[in-house]
Amino acid sequence: MSKAAAQAKKNEGNAFFKNKQYKEAIAKYTEAIGLDQSDVTFYSNRSACYAALNMWAEAAEDGRQCIMTDKSFVKGYFRAALGLQNLGNLEGALDAVKRGLGIDSQNADLKKMSREIEESQRMKKVEAAIAQSKTQMDDRDYAAAVKTLDAALRLDPSNATLNRLMEEARPKFERSEKQRLAGLDPKEKIKEEGDKYFKAANFELAIKSYTKCLDSISDKSSELAIKCYNNRAACYKQLSNFDGTIADSTAVLEYKPDDIKALMRRAQAYEACERYKSALQDVRQVLSYGIDVVGKPSYDLANGMQHRLNKVILLLKS
To answer: If you average pLDDT over residues 69-91, what whole number do you get?
Structure first.
């Protein structure tokens, strides 16, 4: 009886919806839900009404209710994504879209929304980069400004504002860089040479430069030496020289036991060498510092490694 009554309320709501009487339609769909919470179309239709009234939080919530009621109901993911998109929660919207596309990869509405959201995210990143680069230039941090603008130009090469800012920032950066290099001592210049090779992905030559710099440094606990060890370890990792990666990362950790990059790099090298328990020990140390200290990317990487390593160790025991 309640299901039949609920359908009757839905039909009344549909009539109001067709006449664009959205508030009245919402009331009828709400009555239908009160009688039967198992029919996903009640939530979907009410979400459409909320969207028509620009009530995006409510539209997103009813989309979420659709998904909770029936995970295979693709329109629910669209309803949720539409609400989240208009609330400015682009990451949440894109997540809902991807989950929907996981059920129906050819859904035209979801594919279109995915493109729209990704474009919005791209433009949002460009706008943020423009603001950030202006602040960096005001602070005379021209190296950071050029780096920010370079990344943004990869997203939007023809953007007039980005190109204008780069034309202003690059000459200032080149002048300040020339002055900075002139003030370096010979050891630092060798390390800088290694950095240039590293950026050019010429890891063998970078290793030679870092080694030359380390050979010239008597105090291996100095900041310059630690940077060379860390950078040389990164080169060894790129070349799959895991013994070298472990040795240089260990040299860093001897003086800086909480160096996150060295711990993660050594953990990955240990794993590649099938030294799983040693890798797990480093990963657990990273996780013990917490996400605020480590940063989300490294924390997530360490967490994923921990799960994987635990499984491998258990498998080897069995």
So the answer is: 96
